[in-house]
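ingest -> validate -> predict -> emit
validate: passed (alphabet ok, no gaps, 97 aa)
predict: started
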Amino acid sequence: MIMRIFQVTTKEGKEEEFGDFFHNVAIPLMKGTEGIVQVLPGAPRKDSPREFSFVMIWKDLSSLKVFVGDDYQTPHIDPAEAELVASRVIKHYELVE
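emit:
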């Protein structure tokens, strides 16, 4: 299985708007995506108010590629979030059970 960690830092002043997108669009989308075994969304803390994250466990690399395409190393960006985000980081690991 593949562990995909996706971290987002919002643009300053866009935390609330991105939070709405995160809770009402991104989380339901990811939880309903075929090939995902588990989704662990992370919301900001007081010491990092602009940072959001997802830890996603994918069944396999093929399932991930069906969702994001062959270039799975590049973050998949929903058009609704594009103007809200200052930076994105994506990392992939083999899940150890």
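The chain has a mean pLDDT of 93.
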